[in-house]
Amino acid sequence: MTNHIYPNEFEPKANRPFGFRLAFTCHKGLMRAILLALFLFSAPPALAQGLTETDFSPLPLHEAMRIVGERYQGRLIAARLAQPNAHERGLGVELVEELRLLTPARNLLKIRLDARDGRFLEVAGRGQIEALKK
């Protein structure tokens, strides 16, 4: 049976990927070499940014919760890692833990901590004074 797409060849087998043959199969060795070179010569993201093993890892969430819980009453409803704003970068902050705390008076506090050492950078929201632990 002759094939209109692949003259002088057999019909593509059903077990081939997607049921068709790629036209550049004769360059398979070259493609492998190119992919291997790209893989070997591309730097991992941490090395590309100049990070080393001595750089910090962010403060664990349970530690951030403990630090906030020592100062404020309420329930944690959200937490995330965020990039520092311009002012925080000026203070030498590399990464920020951003927590949202629901106070007993049902106010929402947005708390930003330095992810390296847990120092308070910003507390925003109503009812901050009332939410402070005595």
UniProtKB/TrEMBL annotation:
Q: Where is the signal peptide?
A: 1-48
Keyword terms of this UniProt record: Signal
Report the protein name in the record.
PepSY domain-containing protein
Give the organism, scientific name: Paracoccus zhejiangensis
